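User: Please predict the structure of the protein below. I'd like the answer in C-alpha cell form so I can feed it into my own downstream comparison script.

Assistant: Understood. Taking the following sequence of 880 residues as input:
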Amino acid sequence: MAVLSRKRTIALSAAAALVAGLVVVGTNHEFQEVLGLADEPGEGLPHQPREMLEAMMGESQEAGEEAFEYSTAVGQFAQARSAPGIVAPGAYGAAFTELKGLSATPGQWSEITKVPYNSDDPRYRDYASNSSGGSGNVTGRITGLAADNAGYVYAAGANGGVWRSSTGGGNWTPIADQLPSLSTGDLALAADGSLWYATGEANTGATSYVGSGVYRLADPRSGQFTPEMRVGGPELESSVIQKVRFAGGKVWAATNRGLFTHDAASTTGAWHLEYAPNPDYLPGGSKAGDPSAAYKNIVNDVAVDPRNPKHVVAAIAWRGGDTYNGFYETADYTAGGWTKVNPGGAIQPNDIGFATFAFAADGSKLYVINQSPTLYNKTVGTVNSYLDGIYVSNTGSPSGPWNKIADSTKLANSGSALKQSVGGKGYGPGIQAWYNQFLAVDPANPDHVYAGLEEVNETTDGGSNWKVVGPYWNFSFACWNPDDSLNTCQKTTHSDQHSVAIGSYQGKPYVFVGNDGGLYRRPVQGSADRDGHATDWQNLNDGTIDALQYYSVSVGKDTYNGKSGVGVSGGLQDNGASMLRAGETTMGSPFGGDGGDSLADPDNACRQVQEYTNLAMRATQNCNANTNPDSSASTSVDIQPYTSSPGDEPARFIAPFAADDHNVNNWIAGGQHIWLNTKGFGIKNGKDWQNAFDLGAGHLATAVSLSQGVAYVGWCGPCNNQGFTRGIAVGKLGDAKSFHQLNLPADGVLPNRYVAGFGVDPANPNHAFVAFNGFSRRWTEGPGAGVGHVFETTDQGATWKDVSANLPDVPANAVKVLSTGALVLATDLATLYRPAGSTQWQRMGGGLPTTAVLDAEYSKSDNAVYVATHGRGIWKFGLS
C-alpha cells in the first residue's frame, strides 16, 4: 500500500489538502473508511534509486508524509461513495439483488491480465519504474490466508475473492466468484477442515469495501463458495471484519460493530453480539446517527486462550484514539461479563490503538503489535512511525506484565530497508502500523515469531533479537545493482504486509505471507544472510491468481516481436502501471509506485501517459522500455501541469485526464484548474499545458472528457460530508472565454453527489451522459442526495434528464457512449449495457466477477470494451 515511485514527485501538501476540504489524519471525518466505503490507492514511500535516496528523503520529503498521502487517498475514495451523508447498512446487498433481476446480453467476458506480472522485468529499468527492487511477480493485495498440512493453501484478495492451491501455493483456482461480495476481511480453517470466509475488508484503507457476511465451505479442497453457505442472517451484512477465530465450539468475529459469535458447527441461526463497548452507537441505537458512530465499536482482534477456551481476549480501539480503546477479556464467555484490562508493565493503557494478538500454541505467551494513537495524531512531519511497539506477556495474560520487545528503532536497526532509505528521518518501520499488521507464532516454538508491518520481521528468541527477513525493497542496500548480473541482493517480498498463515507442503512447514503485492512463502525454519535477509523466499504469484487492483485501463494497436494485436496497460494500487504487449504472456511494469489514470494512443499502445498520483504524469512513446536506469537515459517525460512550480497544482489523489476521442493529440487534465494540451505526445514538460479555467479554490476535478474540442469537467469541493459541493464546467478547446460553470443548484435534476464520469456521443459533442457515484436518497442520509445515477444532455449541459430507468442503485464510476449509440456503464458491482434506442439497462455478458469496475474503454482495434476492475484485473468483451 505504499505510494512507491523511484522517481520522487512533489506530494500534495497538508495545507493544500486542508484547503481542498479533504480528509485529514486523526479527525472524525474518516468515519466513512470504517464502513468499508473506501478505496485503496497506494500509500507510502516513493521508490528511489540508491543514489537519489538520501537527498530526496532527507530534504524534500517530510516525515510521515506518505502516510498522510494515503490517508488523503482513503478519504477521497470514501467521499465518492458516501458524500454528502452516511450510507445506511444494506446498500450493496440491495444493489446486488437488483442486479440479479436484470437480463444479460449475450457474450462472455475474457480475462486479459491472468498472466504473470513481473515487477522486475529487465526491459523497464527506467528510474521511473521499480524494476530490480526484488519483489518479482506480483498481484493485488492479499488480506486473507489459510493453509493446512496437506499442501492446500487458500488466499483471498482485498476485493478479489478466494483462491485455492493444492500445491503449496501456485496453480490457483478462484472458488468464491458466485458470492455477492469479494471483499476480504479474513480467511480461516476450522478444526473440522471447513474454510470460513469473512467478507468486508477491515483495513479502513482506500479500497476497502463492506461485505455480505461470513461463509462456511465444508469441503474447501474441492468445493466452491455459494450464497447459500452464508452463516447466520443479515447481522454482519454491510460490515467489515478484521478476524475470525475458533474455540469452544464457537466462531468469533471481530467487526466494526462489536464482537460476535456463532455456533461453529452450523450455518443456521443468528450471530450473537457478545460485546460492544458503546452499544448506543450501533445501528438502531439511540446514537446511531452521531457522526462518530462508526468509530465507537471497532474490534481489531479477538484471541482465545489455548489453555482455556472460555478465556477470550479482544483488542477494541479506533486507531485515532477514543476513551474505550484498550484490551478486554472475559474469564468465562458462557457466563457473560467483559472487563477492560489495565495492562501492567511496558504498555501504556491510554495509548492502545490498532492491535493484533498472537498466542503461543501452549498459551504460555501472548504477543501483541500495538499502534499508537498518540503518534498517529501528531502533526504530519514530526514523527517517522506510528508504531508503539511489539510486546510479549510471558504469563499469557492480557494483564501482563508486558515487556516491549521491539519498536521502530529496533526494527530499523535489524536490517530494515526503511532505515537505510531515509537515514532514520522520514519513513520508518511502522509508519503504516494502522494499516499493515500481522502476527504469528511458530506452533513448535513459543519464542519464534513472525511480525508483519511494512516489512516482514522475525525473531527466534522471544524478541531479544530481530531480523528483517522480508525488506521493503533492495534499492537501498549495497548489494543492489540495476544490472541483474551484478545484483547480489536476495529476492524479497512486496511491501506492506496484511496476512499470514503457517502450513505444510510435502511434510515441510512453511510460513505464507500476504501483502500489497500478493503471496510469498519460505520454510518456517528458514535461512538468512549476514544482514538478516531471507535467502529462501518463494514467489507464489505465478499469474494464475489475478487479484490486481486497477484504477484505469488503456488500449491501442501494437506490434511486438513480429506479432500484431493490441497492447493493454493500466494503473494499479501500489503496483505501478502494467504493460501487456501484443502476443505476450507476461506483463511488465514500466512505471512504479501507485498507478493512477492512464491514456494510450489508439493507433500505438506504446505512446501513452501514466499517472503516479495527483496529476504527476509521465509521457512515453516507447512503453518506457529502457534497460538503463540512468535518469539521463529516461525514455519518459515528466509532464505534470503546474502554475508556478512543479507540484503546486491541487488535484485528487487519482486525478483525471483524457484525450479527445477525435484527436489523440488534444488532451485535457483536471486539478483545481482545467488543463489543455494540443501538442499530444510531443509535449516536453509541465509548462506545455494551457491553463484554461479555474474551477475555484478548493474545487478539484473528479472527471474530465474532451470530444471534438468540447470539454466536460466534474468537480467537488468540499468533497466530504461537511458542506459537500459538486459542479460541472463546460467549454471549448481554443476558446477560453467559453468555459463556464453550469448552474446545477437551480437545475433541480442532478443529485448532490460525486460526479464520476462523462460519456460523449461520438457524433455530437453537445450530446453527453454523466455518471454519479454514491447511493440514492434511499440509502444516503445527506442533503440533496437525490436519486439516479446516469443523466443525459443534448444541449452541452444546459439541461439534463434522468435516464437511470431500471438501473440498480449502485455507485457508478464511468460511462462510455459507443459509436452505435449504446451505453456502457462501470459500477461497483458490475458492468451494465444499454442498447442503442433502448431505455432499459442489462448486465453486460457473463463471466465477470462481482467486483468494482472503475474504468471502461472502447478499443477500435478489435471492436471490444475493456474494463479495469479494482480487485480482479482487466477484462475484455468483444462487441462483434
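That's the full C-alpha cell string. Residues 702 and 791 are 16 Å apart (CA to CA).
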